[in-house]
From TrEMBL:
Similarity comment: family membership: Belongs to the LacAB/RpiB family.
GO biological process, one term: carbohydrate metabolic process
The organism's taxonomic lineage, starting at the top: Bacteria, Bacillati, Bacillota, Clostridia, Lachnospirales
Keyword terms, alphabetized: Isomerase
Protein source organism: Hungatella effluvii
Location of the Ribose-5-phosphate isomerase C-terminal domain: 166-210
Gene Ontology molecular functions: intramolecular oxidoreductase activity, interconverting aldoses and ketoses
Superkingdom of origin organism: Bacteria
Name under which the protein is recorded: Ribose 5-phosphate isomerase B
SUPFAM superfamilies reported in the protein's UniProt record: Ribose/Galactose isomerase RpiB/AlsB
Family annotation (InterPro entries): Ribose_5_isomerase_C, RpiB_LacA_LacB, RpiB_LacA_LacB_sf
The keyword Acetylation is annotated on this UniProt entry: no
Length: 231
């Protein structure tokens, strides 16, 4: 299982603490992790929760990672941002029971946590417990177990509805502000993870064009101002 941790600017200073908790849990459950967001207050590019949604959308829909862990001060903005996209089902997690119920009932592929609200002494211990609940058992087992089939069916219908309401992945990126997309995807750590594991497909090909563009290019490939052709 491959997991991406991503922090935005307001909680970047806590990235090392969050990562230590993730490393402990990942080692127990054979999880490969990537730290694709901001790591310190001085990192560039500066990411906000909107950028995190774009990163998660790309990483999950290209098969680069299987799961995303993110958050912000309250966790709410990151959760809303990620849930804007098809192929991303993000749960709002505040404690280990949330984590367990989310994996067993909703079987999503991303979580958003509050990294400022109620984040005090021994917060890293709570994080370790949350990560343990996320990784210690296979998702979709149902809770209570006898409700598994109906919960699984509801999840399938939910994904179908979400897909019908959304554009194709490449069209989504083309519709967004080019500079916002470029900022979300140009970071060294994101690019390293993406280039290593992204599966072939139209979204992967388009993102590779974006990150290959020079920073001062006026538009993303395939959008107004640039036809995406290579000379």
């Amino acid at each position: 299982m491959r997991v991406a941790l991503m922090n935005e600017f307001s909680q970047a200073s806590k990235n090392a603490l969050i990562l230590r908790a993730l490393e402990k849990s990942a080692a127990k459950y054979h999880v490969e992790w990537f730290n694709t967001g901001m790591r310190t207050d001085n990192d560039q590019p500066v990411l906000n929760y909107i950028h995190l949604g774009i990163q998660a959308f790309v990483l999950l829909n290209t098969g680069t990672v299987d799961f995303v862990i993110t958050g912000c001060g309250s966790g709410q903005g990151a959760c809303m941002s990620l849930n804007s996209y098809p192929g991303v089902n993000c749960g709002y997690i505040t404690d280990p029971s949330d984590a367990y119920l989310f994996t067993q009932i909703n079987n999503g592929n991303a979580v958003a946590l509050p990294f400022a609200k109620d984040f005090g002494w021994a917060a890293e211990l709570k994080l370790e417990d949350i990560f343990d609940k996320l990784f210690s058992c296979e998702g979709g087992g149902g809770y209570p177990v006898e409700m598994r089939d109906i919960q699984s069916k509801n999840g399938t219908v939910f994904n179908q509805v979400k897909d019908l309401l959304c554009k194709e992945p490449v069209d989504i990126l083309k519709a967004l502000d080019p500079e916002m997309v470029r900022t979300a995807l140009e970071g060294e750590w994101f690019c390293s993870c993406f280039q290593k594991y992204a599966k072939p497909g139209s979204l992967t090909a388009y993102v590779k064009e974006i990150i290959a563009e020079k920073p001062d290019d006026p538009a993303l490939p395939g959008t107004d101002g640039h036809d995406g052709s290579k000379n």
